[in-house]
Amino acid sequence: MELTWHGHSTWYVSVGSTDLLIDPFFGNPKTEVDPATLDPDYVLLTHGHADHIGDVDRFQSTPVAATPEVAGYVEDNYGVEETIGFNLGGTIELGGAFVTMHRADHTNGMDTDYEATGGMPAGFIVSDTKPTQGSDPDSTTFYHAGDTSLMTEMREVIGPYLEPDAAAVPVGDHFTMGPMQAAIAVDWLDVDHAFPMHYDSFPPIEIDTDEFVREVKATGSNADVHVLEGDETFEL
């Protein structure tokens, strides 16, 4: 599995021959990629905020998977031709990838029209095998936490049952977790690899990522923290 961070919460995840693009927002200072050069098989949206769906119209012919509310919204407003609506707790098979949607503790109003809501915000657990109660040492699993606060489901459900090997967690504070709570999330998830995201894109979420590294160490977690450069790829 290859994980490429394009800044903010935008990830390009390759699972075998299947390419997923999560939360396309290329209007951030960490990326130099023109989205027109990308050709994902599927686009995943965690929620409907503009800094997560901002460039979905660049992928109008690519199937978009999200909650039914967000899927319908981008179909009606961004010209997306095909959507796959699924919901919290559900697992769908997208090519060679299995994607499980889990809740994220956040808000989900779209644009400035507070009557337009996208249902519960989400995170995605992406794996090359279907999740089962039996632990599979041969599977590789990546958790994109979305725009979440710290939640006990990380410790009680996602970590022990969905068993991610790696997690991308928001660390920018103000709108999501900050470094301290994000570090606790990494510890609860019991992952081997942790990646900070959702930071430095605009002034309220500018942070020193060294603080996140220190906080993860302070939890006693054995996770390796990888502070990626924009457009950098990590092979999991």
UniProtKB/TrEMBL annotation:
Belongs to the UPF0173 family. Pfam families: Lactamase_B_2 (PF12706). HAMAP family: UPF0173. This is UPF0173 metal-dependent hydrolase HSR122_1230. NCBIfam families: PRK00685.1 (NF001911). Residues 7-198 form the Metallo-beta-lactamase domain. Keywords: Hydrolase. PANTHER family: UPF0173 METAL-DEPENDENT HYDROLASE MJ1163, UPF0173 METAL-DEPENDENT HYDROLASE MJ1163-RELATED. InterPro entries: Metallo-B-lactamas, RibonucZ/Hydroxyglut_hydro, UPF0173, UPF0173_UPF0282_UlaG_hydrolase. The keyword Endoplasmic reticulum does not apply. It comes from the Archaea. One of its GO terms (molecular function) is hydrolase activity. It comes from Halapricum desulfuricans.
